[in-house]
Amino acid sequence: MAEFDGRPFFSCRNCLNPLAFHHDLISKTFKAQTGQAYMFSNAMNVVLGRKEDKQMITGIYTIAKIYCSNCGQELGWHYLRAYDLKQKWKEGNFILEKFKMLKEYK
Fold this sequence. Notes:
Blueprint: E1 8-12, E2 18-21, E3 25-32, E4 35-40, E5 46-56, E6 59-68, E7 74-82, E8 94-97, E9 101-105
Antiparallel strand pairs: 1-2, 1-9, 3-4, 4-8, 5-6, 6-7, 7-8
């Protein structure tokens, strides 16, 4: 289990399983099916789904959906590959839907 030391973090809205630290937040400008989504450089306590190619607003990507390791809630996706050279910076990052998370301090 990660040490929080009063640092803000994001958890699963469904079961409060910790998902990501605030200091790993890259951007709040992403869009998902439920609305706003955040990009993180790291995520914890998630399970990756199967790889799939998906057409998105900015191009085609190979992604894997991510799920809470505790309750199984679908949370967003993990960028595995960007086919457009201008989008390569997204590779390896995680998108978590804002509506499916809570920000906590412990």
